[in-house]
Amino acid sequence: MRQARVFIKDVFCGILTENEDGYRFQYDLKYLSSPDAESLSPTMPLTVEAYEKEMMFPVFDGLIPEGWLLEVASASWKIDPRDRMGLLLACCRDCIGDISVTPADYE
């Protein structure tokens, strides 16, 4: 099982988990209680219920590099291009846009 901390505009908003059944995302309760809380995407509105999906959620999959940049990232970190969680953890700490992802144990 691998986990990632997810941030919106540098504010911690929830945990993304990869397990044997697929992926799970849950918004942080403290984040949900904030008046400034924003959803990750229109397909993942703010809720206390966890989202579960067999494949990577599109909002996170869209952060992963594509094309030649995917080839460079995959070769540099020796990550299989099909390992979406591995690529997300390696490449998405400082993305263009509001969302960033770090390994759960990253400070």
Report what the structure shows.
Helix content is 25%, strand content 28%. The protein has 107 residues and is α+β, with helices and mostly antiparallel strands. The chain has one domain. Strands 4-3-2-1-5 form a 5-stranded antiparallel beta sheet. Strand 2 (11-19) and strand 3 form a beta hairpin. The longest helix has 11 residues, at 67-77. The radius of gyration is 14 Å and the shape is globular.
In summary, what is this structure?
This protein is an alpha+beta fold.
Could you name the key traits of this structure?
25% helix, 4 helices, 28% strand, 107 residues, alpha+beta
Through-space gap between termini: 19 Å
The arrangement of helices and strands along the chain is EEEHEHHHE
| Uncertain segments | none
DSSP summary, beta strand count: 5
